[in-house]
Amino acid sequence: MDLELFQKAPFGTLVPISGSLPAGGSWSHQAFLPQPLTESSPELSGCAYRQVANARAALAALDSTAQRLPNPRLFRTSTLRLEAQSTAALEGTYEPLVRVLAADVDDDQDPSMREVLNYLLVAESAFTWAELGRGWSLTDLADLQSALVKDTASECEHSGQVRPIQVVVGRRDGALANEIPIKAARYVPPPPGPDLEARLRDLVDWMQSSRHDQIDPVVAAAMAHYEFEALHPFHDGNGRLGRLLIVLQLYASGVISEPTLSVSPWFEQRRAQYYDALLAVSTRSDWSAWVEFFSLGLAESALATQKRMLALATAQAELKERLRGTPMRSANARVLIDYAVGHPTFTVAHAAAALKMGNPGAKKLIDSLVKYQILAPFGDRVYARRFHAPRVLEILLSHAVGSQ
Fold first, then answer.
1. Which pLDDT does position 375 carry in this prediction?
2. Please, is 335 exposed, middle or buried when counting C-beta atoms within 10 Å of its C-beta (0-12, 13-18, 19+)?
3. At 62, which helix (H) or strand (E)?
4. Would you say 319 and 338 are in contact if contact means Cβ atoms under 8 Å apart?
5. CA spacing 20 to 30 A to 372: which of 55, 101, 162, 224?
């Protein structure tokens, strides 16, 4: 880590750390310890405040749209898959979006896809807590982290606990090829120990405390996301958990009433700016640049989510209108269209379970909708063949942030 960057006005202090080299000998360096968050907002520029206002307006528009739709939860599955694909890509695990949309969470998967799909399970658990009005604790976060890395290359003896080891983040430009990782790192978070655990516990409490009179909820979410990433409390999964916590915090603060918001696609398209803006808070307390960037991301993510939601609702209506032009009069056909809008691809068994009917009946219903070009087979699998509504998949692929 380039210690010279932290000599002006850092948001925290450098603390000495040391260790042993695998080949023998020892090293000494310094880690960064961010200041705890306070009960007041940092001083921000006029541009930052304007962008915060834009973000609040965009989030309000998204929430208004969600509340007008008969069943906004219908669009959560596809939003989570978009988020899962992008949040993993930000951390270096890339899976094509179309493959993520088609993957079955319950199937055996290669470690790369497992890493992406684990996010779906983690997010569903977290959103269930939120809907029940239940907060989250340090233990809850540790459990989510354990689930996030389960059956992946990142799973290890430290999974599910605040890290007991020193870690580093990234590699700085200009680092020598033979430089040891701790010194070649772009950022070195706080050392492990009781203090790190106490600071994470304090942050968890801070995130769930109401302080609307002192700090705008968007600013509070930006502050908490920075602090979580700066602490880097787990050996892996911090970025993915941190971005999930953005949505949870906005939901808990009442800014959104349905957690159907995907933020990672926007940040993934601007990953260098994202990491630079976070680091600038640590090195020179540049809260204005970070809050402005973060708020712009929320605003554009909310707009993209709203557009996708409306497009899917339109597609849902169009598919049902097409159904009315066929001889089919089964109420289950309409229910299956709803299911296809909410689930990008599915099997006969999935449809049967959703409609509470046997597989033969579900297969007959699907075949009829395929005949009238409302549904279509997906892929070329013979066993456990999948189906989809082509218009729905087209919308999801075209409305991913950054492809517009």
1. 95
2. middle
3. helix 46-68
4. no
5. 101
What does R_g of the chain's alpha carbons equal in angstroms?
23
Q: Which two tokens stand for residue 332?
A: 């289950």
**In this structure, what DSSP letter does residue 191 have?**
P
| Sign, Cα dihedral of 77, 86, 240, 56 | negative
Question: Domains, the chain, ranges and CATH?
Answer: 3-307 (1.10.3290.10), 325-398 (1.10.10.10)
> Which tokens in the block code for residue 1?
């880590």
Q: What is the pLDDT of residue 138?
A: 95
**Token digits of residue 54:** 């834009």
| Average pLDDT value for residue range 99-118 | 82
Question: Per residue in 19-32, pLDDT tens?
Answer: 888 877 888 999 99
Max CA separation in the chain (angstroms) = 80
Query: What is the predicted pLDDT for the residue at 400?
Result: 57
Query: pLDDT at position 399, please?
Result: 61
Length of the chain: 404
State the residue for tokens 């729905």. 392
